[in-house]
Amino acid sequence: MVKKIIKETEKEWKKVEQEEMKEEDHQLELKENYEQDETFDESNE
User: Fold this and answer.
1) What's the pLDDT at 1?
2) Whether the model pTM is above 0.85
3) What does the alpha-carbon distance between residue 45 and residue 41 come to, in Å, rounded to a whole number?
4) Each residue's pLDDT tens digit, 1-45
5) What confidence score (pLDDT) does residue 39 get?
6) Whole-number Å distance between alpha carbons of 27 and 23
7) Local structure of residue 45 (DSSP, 8 states)
8) What dihedral do alpha carbons 38, 40, 43, 45 form, nearest 10°?
9) Which residues of 9-28 are buried (b: 16+ CB within 10 A; e: fewer)?
């Protein structure tokens, strides 16, 4: 019984970690896009 609960909990943690990684990737993409835009703006001045 306890092992089953532990397995379920581990599954949930993995799920949460994957979602967090996706969110971090998304934030990183946004940051990179922003920086590219800044560079582009500077080159047009």
Assistant:
1) 87
2) no
3) 7
4) 899 999 999 999 999 999 999 999 999 999 999 999 888 877 876
5) 84
6) 6
7) -
8) -70
9) eeeeeeeeeeeeeeeeeeee
Question: What phi and psi values does residue 13 have, to the nearest 5 degrees?
Answer: -60, -45
The owner of tokens 């581990």 is 10
- Amino acid 16: pLDDT: 96
Name the residue among 9, 31, 28 with its Cα closest to residue 20: 28
Kindly state the tokens that stand for 5.
Answer: 């609960």
The label of the residue with tokens 């993995």 reads: 14
